[in-house]
């Protein structure tokens, strides 16, 4: 289970890297991050201010549609040939014989 999640995360990271590298995804930072002001006194620790960074993301577009076209599509042909008739007749199968075949089984 852990391997599967790890593999999925790796694939996601690779897809993001490929999207940025090909120009399909453009990420620009528009606001820098600021750490909060932290102060400690007898009453405890307080934090104030701070700001998260902001990003502008531009993505490419993918258009999917149809357009009329006159094309010739080759269709494969299939032919079935019957096997050739045998040229020589096979000998009859061998039968197992016993030297006492005429004697009943209880008379031996």
Percentage of residues in helical conformation? 10-25%
User: What gross morphology would you assign?
Assistant: elongated
Rounded average pLDDT: 85
Low-confidence stretches: none
Q: Measured on Cα atoms, how large is the radius of gyration?
A: 42 Å
Residue share in β-strands: 15-25%
Helical element count? Answer: 1
The end-to-end span amounts to: 72 Å
The sequence of SSEs as H and E is: HEEEE
Task: Give the neighbour order of strands across the main sheet.
Answer: 1-4
Structural class label:
alpha+beta
Described by strand count, sense and barrel closure, the largest sheet is: 2 strands, antiparallel
Strand segment tally: 4
Write the layout of secondary structure elements.
Elements: H1 2-21, E1 25-31, E2 37-41, E3 44-48, E4 54-59
Antiparallel strand pairs: 1-4, 2-3
